[in-house]
Amino acid sequence: MTKATAKAPWVVHVNCNSCNGCDIEFLACLTPMYDAERFGVLHIGTPKHADIMVVTGSVNNRNARVLRNLYEQMPSPKVVVAMGVCPATGGIFADGYNVIGGAEKVVPVDVFVPGCPPRPEAMLDGILEGAKILAGKRQNSVTVKPVRRIKIVRPAAPAADPAAAAAAPAPVKEEAK
Ligand code: SF4
After folding, report:
1. For the chain, how far is it from start to end, CA to CA, in angstroms?
2. pTM greater than 0.90
3. I need a labelling partner for 70 at 20 to 30 A (CA). Which of 76, 97, 150, 158 fits?
């Protein structure tokens, strides 16, 4: 179960403040041309069922809270893949008056895919790398229950009492007929 779902991750896409270049390339990944589903990657519309968050665009004062909110709605363990230069450093928007910078300022990023925009092949590679990290996180989060120790209580042996043994009636011997 764990391995199967890590190999077939569900991905939610969050566009923070991109020029839409990365988003178009990401959409290309979902078309039959690049066919992300052949790797088991399923694009879904809710963070509540997602294993991997794909972030495009830079983080600014308005979308930082939204990004954090969406990330917190994802079940753990989870992975964040930053697509392109913008979610890595802020990219060409870095000098904007309201731009905070890369996505890592708000959420922990596991994989950075370089490019402006990255090619769909690179994006797929980044998502599959994220799936491997997800599998590792799942293995590490499996809690091993401690072995339950059973305490064996033995009844105490009766104390040797010579007086009681002498007072005990002698065993009856049957006479031979
Ligand atoms: S990395 Fe380049 S293509 Fe992607 S959102 Fe930023 S500016 Fe646009």
Report:
1. 79
2. no
3. 97
Check pLDDT > 90 for residue 127: yes
Buried b (16+ CB within 10 A) or exposed e, 28-45: bbbeeebebeebebebee
91 Cβ inside 6 Å of ligand 1: yes
Q: Is the CB of 136 under 6 A from ligand 1?
A: no
Residue 45 pLDDT > 90: yes
C-alpha to C-alpha distance for 7 and 132, rounded to whole angstroms: 8
Q: Is 86 in the pocket of ligand 1 (CB under 6 A)?
A: yes
Q: What is the pLDDT of residue 18?
A: 92
Separation CA 47–CA 105 (nearest Å): 19
Considering only the top CATH level, what class is 2-139? Answer: alpha beta
Widest distance between CA atoms in the chain: 120
Which residue is associated with the tokens 């690049």? 34
CB atoms within 10 A of CB 55: 30
Query: What average pLDDT does the chain have?
Result: 86
Domain edges within the chain: 2-139
